[in-house]
Amino acid sequence: MLEALASCWFGWAGYPERGLVTDRAKYFLGELAEDLSAHGCYLETAATASPWQHGAVERHGGLWKESLRRLIWAQQVAGKDEILLATAATNAAKNSLARKGGFSPNQWVLGRDIRLPASLADDGEVARVGAQALAATPGTKFFRQTQLRMAAREAFAIASNDAALRRAELRQVRPTRGPFPIGSYVFYYDSANKE
């Protein structure tokens, strides 16, 4: 986990100021926790018997999985190379279409949206005749990437409005965490006291 974070996130974006929220699995509490604390990062863990405390992460993970599943079926993705292309397209769709505070993850991290090659909605891309020609030529790798990108964006839009996922989200709502003023009632769930 630490190796994946170091190569995919810490290397270019640095260590987060706030830290990470994880479950209490031993692989999160060992070397990863030590590395984060050594870099001044706070690792917050959810209660052992309270998996619903990861509501936002679980919801986004579910959206990603459903988007990828829809993309694979819609485009008949097969083989390792196409799975890698589909995964990248799903990541790009989620990072450009999801919103928090009115901004996508791409906008939060990069300060702008990323360029979509051969997009007809971008005037600068319409002028790139070579990319437009490749996007219209079946059998090329760029044509397939364009197909997967478009299908991934469509799959994310459908998955993000899925009624079953919405019902699951409403079933176990997690309240916001602190700060708790002195005298506030704070409730917690402890599965160890079950009889």
Q: Can you tell me about this structure?
A:
The protein is built from 10 helices and 2 strands; from the N terminus they run αβααβααααααα. With 195 residues, it is mostly helical. Strands 1-2 form a two-stranded parallel sheet. It is elongated, with a radius of gyration of 21 Å.
- Coarse shape: elongated
C-alpha end-to-end distance: 36 Å
Helix proportion range = 55-70%
Total helical elements: 10
Give the integer mean of the pLDDT values. 80
Strand order of the largest sheet: 1-2
Brief description of this entry?
The protein has 195 residues and is mostly helical.
Defining traits:
10 helices; single chain; elongated; 3% strand; two-stranded parallel ribbon; 195 residues; mainly alpha
Write the layout of secondary structure elements.
Elements: H1 2-13, E1 20-22, H2 26-29, H3 31-38, E2 43-45, H4 55-75, H5 80-97, H6 105-110, H7 123-126, H8 129-135, H9 141-159, H10 163-171
Parallel strand pairs: 1-2
Helix pairs in contact: 4-5, 4-9, 5-9
